[in-house]
Amino acid sequence: MNKEDKVFILDTSAFFTYLEDEEDADYIQNLLEKAENGEAVIYISFISLTEVYYITLQERDAAEASDRISLIRSLASSVCSSDALRARLMSGVMLC
Fold first, then answer.
1. Residue 1: inside a domain, yes or no?
2. Coil, strand, or helix at residue 21?
3. Residue 31: which domain range?
4. How many folded domains does the chain comprise?
5. E strands of the chain, at which residues?
6. What distance in Å separates the CA atoms of residue 88 and residue 16, rounded to the nearest whole number?
7. Which residues in 78-90 are b (16+ Cβ under 10 Å) and which e?
8. What is the pLDDT of residues 39-72, one digit of tens each?
9. Sorting pLDDT into bands at 50, 70 and 90, what band is 87?
10. Cα-based distances in Å from 21 to 5, 14, 17
């Protein structure tokens, strides 16, 4: 990654926007495509994964919740602890 590459942290709401094809889902899709092409780096909080699983479990079912987590883990991204993400935020990373 060079200085011109962008680094993003996707939160729970960003994933629900993407997963449920809500307004601005195309923006998230674009970020994911950039990450896939090596033009951006995406980080995900472990807590966001937990929230996506729990909310989906409550609103749908366990199979859907598991499928969503599998999909998120298959994306060109890295799952980090909250402490690691906090350090990245302090260094100027963009939060989505």
1. no
2. coil
3. 6-95
4. 1
5. 6-10, 40-45, 78-80, 94-95
6. 22
7. eebeeeebeebee
8. 999 999 999 999 999 999 999 999 999 999 999 9
9. confident
10. 26, 10, 6
Judge contact between 50 and 72, C-beta under 8 A.
no
Q: Report the C-alpha gap between 73 and 96 in whole angstroms.
A: 17
Upper half-sphere CA count for residue 37 (Cβ side, 13 Å): 9
Query: Residue 33: which CATH number?
Result: 3.40.50.1010
What is the rounded CA–CA span in Å between residue 27 and residue 5? 17
Cα 67 to Cα 34, 60, 63, distances in angstroms: 23, 11, 6
Cα 77 to Cα 80: distance, rounded to the nearest angstrom: 10
Q: Is the pLDDT of residue 89 over 90?
A: no
Number of H helices, E strands in the chain: 5, 4
Q: What is the CA radius of gyration of the chain?
A: 13
Q: For tokens 């680094």, name the residue.
A: 7
